[in-house]
Amino acid sequence: MFHYLEHSTDPDRELRAAHEALCPGGHLLIEVPDPESRYARLLGRWWLPWLQPQHLHLMPVANLRRRLADLGFTVVAEQHAEAHDPVDLLAAVWLALDHAAPREDAPWLPARPGPLHRAARAALLLAAVPALLTATLLDRFAVRPLSGRLGLSNAYRLVARRQ
């Protein structure tokens, strides 16, 4: 279940179904965004995994471990740094830009933006290319190697064995 449970309307039902589908001794691999990550706190509303309406449920690792145990699984591995997807700074810059100059198809806008708004958005995005490139480079080459030690991993991965 790679980045699946957070999209499910009923993650508990999905976990119960996985338990039924797996034979005793079988393994379940789950990877989900980590709402307790340092990035979630540092970036706040600009942290990509808060993504709405696609992400319906974000589970702290202790909660998921507890539920898996209740269902008859034993967690045999937990990874954070290895599950990190290095996109946080880039996504934060993009989300801030998208907030400053919303796309014309945003359903919450009171009226469809006119040509002046579209031109302003294009200019803003063009001016922001250096910031987007810098964020990408920082994500990939500065933060990624240190993500585990700094607690910046934006996801976690559990491997659980059915008892």
From TrEMBL:
* Highest taxon listed in the record's lineage: Bacteria
Q: Which InterPro entries match?
A: SAM-dependent_MTases_sf
Q: Which Gene3D superfamilies match?
A: Vaccinia Virus protein VP39 (3.40.50.150)
Fetch the Pfam families from UniProt.
Answer: Methyltransf_23
Which SUPFAM superfamilies does this chain map to? S-adenosyl-L-methionine-dependent methyltransferases
Protein name per UniProt? Methyltransferase
